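B., you asked whether I could sanity-check this one before it goes into the benchmark set. Here's the sequence:
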Amino acid sequence: MGLATLLAVSLLGAGEADAGPKPDAAASNRSEVEQAQGRGLVVDTSAVSPPLRVRHGSVDGEKVREVVSSNRAELRSCYERALLDDPHLSGACTVRIVIAKDGTVGTAGIQGSTLHSLSMQRCVLQLVRKWRFQPPADGRPAAVDYPLTFRKEEHDAGL
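And here's what the prediction gave me:
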């Protein structure tokens, strides 16, 4: 068979203190990836490198990862729209998220990016600003740097 184009949005990150995903979480993530592949899309949220970085404040990295993972479909939509303008678009960006003491996003910004699409970056930031996280444990705002990777993959559908 010919080549099937698969879209991959890797949401990378785990708490710095984590040794990796728990076995049940890893199995769950594999299941999600396999289900997504059946629909022609790959969404990989199981990667742990590079990790998210908690810049200041007290937040649970795993809880942050869960929020980002739960919004991967919206992130994928940003990428799909950006691909209409640039079919070869791929790359990574690090989003700095300042989580307010009530769990809302106080501010969000791009800290570094290899994506050459301002519209893609704007779309990601518009989404992130709507997310809600578990409030920081110490009651003070927390800043997190979260890496996101966007790419298309080509696979031989006959294999």
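One thing to flag: DSSP finds four helices and six strands in the chain. Otherwise nothing jumped out at me.
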